[in-house]
Amino acid sequence: MDGLFAIHDFMIAFKHQVPEGKHEKFRVRWEPDTVVFWDNRSVQHYAASDYYPDVRIMERASIVGTRPT
Of 6, 19, 31, 61, whose CB neighbour count within 10 A is largest? Predict the structure, then answer.
């Protein structure tokens, strides 16, 4: 298929650039009883450690389901 390798190379390069982006992020202003969750199958999570002296409690839950399309 013409162009298949070019598309593959572009997608790999794009995938590796996205997590490094400074604009693609979601920040939460933590308050008592705040709950946030996301689907790690579709996003990349990076926990900023800028909440000192407060603490953060994290729980991990796994689900069984279909793969994202």
Answer: 19
